[in-house]
Amino acid sequence: MKEKLQELEKEALLKVNEAKELKDLQEVRVAYLGKKGPITEVLRGMGKLSKEERPVIGELANKVRENIANELDGKKSTLEAIELEKQLENETIDVTLPGRPVQIGGPHLLTSIVGEIEDLFIGMGFEVREGPEVETDYYNFEALNLPKGHPARDMQDSFYITEDILLRTHTSPVQARTMGEYNGEKPVKMICPGKVYRRDTDDATHSHQFTQIEGLYVDKDVRMSDLKGVLNRFAKEMFGEDREIRLRPSFFPFTEPSVEMDISCKVCNGKGCSVCKKTGWIEILGGGMVHPRVLEMAGYDPDVYNGFAFGMGPERIAMLKYGVDDIRHFYINDNRFLKQYHKA
């Protein structure tokens, strides 16, 4: 029995020394130290030995088991170190290589245009106000001189949620809310940018969702010439000092008198071309003097206060300023289009 244990130890240590991989060591461990291994069988057969042999063989078996286990652990540490060295060698990073370029994004073209317009009007003393996109029928229509059944409501085919709740069709409700907040007690000078929604078929010049910026100035002794001066400054700042404007009579329920503003075509300088349809002018926005009824509903005395309002679409401003031929470019997130307008 003693010779057998010594032979098993010698055999196991030789296999440990020959192991090249961790899986080989595990096989040796199971084969010699496992529950079905030869050393375990020796220990199980000790009952057949004499009383004198049992302690000797038991001590030797434990010593053999311990020697094999120690060799296995030592070899395992050596193989793990070798594998780690190989892994580090394979994963070495050459820090002298140039880094991959990082693409830096920028504001969306519409965001830039809205910011530019805001800065322009803030410089003229206007404040920026915001309001809810889900609006009541009262603020979206009735407070703006568009009572239920008014034919002009058909001009703004709306997304109704309930009979009295809808997605706003313009940002004018923010003007009505602000005037109501002031309750006719102080002047208002504001612009209100934001998204608006109308039932429309999307094409190159129309969208069911778009942005608007509307302006309002209510005070004593406000004149149409003040509106023209503000819009003229806007046109020149946005499109160049050589741009000319003209105001044409129009109709809007919330202003009286109402006008539409054209700017001289920058392509032909007013001579007439395909862009301006041979007229020399391009329509850009609408406005007018605030209707007395709108002032009354907001708590202002129309005999004391008057004012002007205007509204424009940043998409149209961007299309005219940068020559964009399709409004859908603003919404399809094509990076080839968007990156053209990233400012460094």
UniProtKB/TrEMBL annotation:
Keywords annotated in UniProt: Aminoacyl-tRNA synthetase, ATP-binding, Cytoplasm, Ligase, Magnesium, Metal-binding, Nucleotide-binding, Protein biosynthesis
Cofactor: Mg(2+)
Residues reported in the UniProt entry to bind Mg(2+): 256
Annotated Pfam families: Phe_tRNA-synt_N, tRNA-synt_2d
A GO biological-process term: phenylalanyl-tRNA aminoacylation
Protein EC: 6.1.1.20
MF terms in GO: ATP binding; catalytic activity, acting on a protein; magnesium ion binding; phenylalanine-tRNA ligase activity; transferase activity; tRNA binding
Subcellular localization, as worded in the UniProt entry: Cytoplasm
Quaternary structure annotation from Swiss-Prot or TrEMBL: Tetramer of two alpha and two beta subunits.
The protein's name: Phenylalanine--tRNA ligase alpha subunit
Organism: Saliterribacillus persicus
The organism's taxonomic lineage, starting at the top: Bacteria, Bacillati, Bacillota, Bacilli, Bacillales
